[in-house]
Design a protein that fits this description.
The protein is an all-alpha fold. It contains five helices and two strands. 37% of the residues lie in helices and 3% in strands. Helix 1 runs antiparallel to helix 2.
C-alpha cells in the first residue's frame, strides 16, 4: 500500500470513527479453520498452485468456512483466465480477488494489515578494521 502507515486511534487528529472501520492486523498466517479445503477438480496446475498460495497467505486468516464456495468460484475464474483470457472474465476475476483481499486494493478496502511481528532489535556489527581508526572531528 502506498503512503504512510495508518496512525493509531489515539494519535489521529480527528476522533471520529472511520467510515470503513479500523485497520485490523491479521490474527495469524494462513487458513485458520482446520485442513485447507480441496480445490475444485479439473483445474490446471497453475490454478492449484494459486489455491495453495492463497490459503497459505496471511489474508486467508480473515476468511471463514462459508467463504469457500465463493473462493472455489474465484479459482475457476482464475483457471478460465489462464486458459482463454477475455475482458469479461478478467473483470469478474478482479472483483472476486478484491472481495477476498487478494489484491492491494481489496486489502485496503477491507482495511486488512499483515500480522504484527515481534520487532527484535537488530544486532549491531562491529566495524571492520579499516574504519576503527576513524574519529569524529569537531566535537
Amino acid at each position: 500500500m502506498p503512503g504512510p502507515a495508518p496512525k493509531l486511534p489515539e494519535q489521529r487528529r480527528t476522533r471520529h470513527k472511520p467510515r470503513d472501520g479500523e485497520w485490523t492486523p491479521a490474527p495469524a498466517e494462513g487458513w485458520q479453520h482446520g485442513k485447507v479445503p480441496a480445490p475444485p477438480t479439473g483445474i490446471s496446475r497453475e490454478a492449484r498452485a494459486a489455491w495453495k498460495d492463497w490459503f497459505a497467505s496471511w489474508v486467508a486468516s480473515f476468511w471463514r468456512p462459508d467463504d469457500v464456495h465463493a473462493l472455489r468460484a474465484t479459482i475457476l475464474l482464475y483457471d478460465a483466465m489462464l486458459d482463454r483470457p477475455s475482458s469479461s472474465t478478467a473483470t469478474a476475476l478482479g472483483q472476486y480477488l478484491d472481495r477476498f483481499g487478494l489484491t492491494p486494493a481489496g486489502r485496503q478496502k477491507r482495511r486488512w494489515l499483515p500480522p504484527e511481528e515481534d520487532h527484535k532489535p537488530q544486532e549491531t556489527t562491529t566495524p571492520s578494521s579499516d574504519y576503527r581508526r576513524l574519529r569524529v572531528v569537531g566535537e
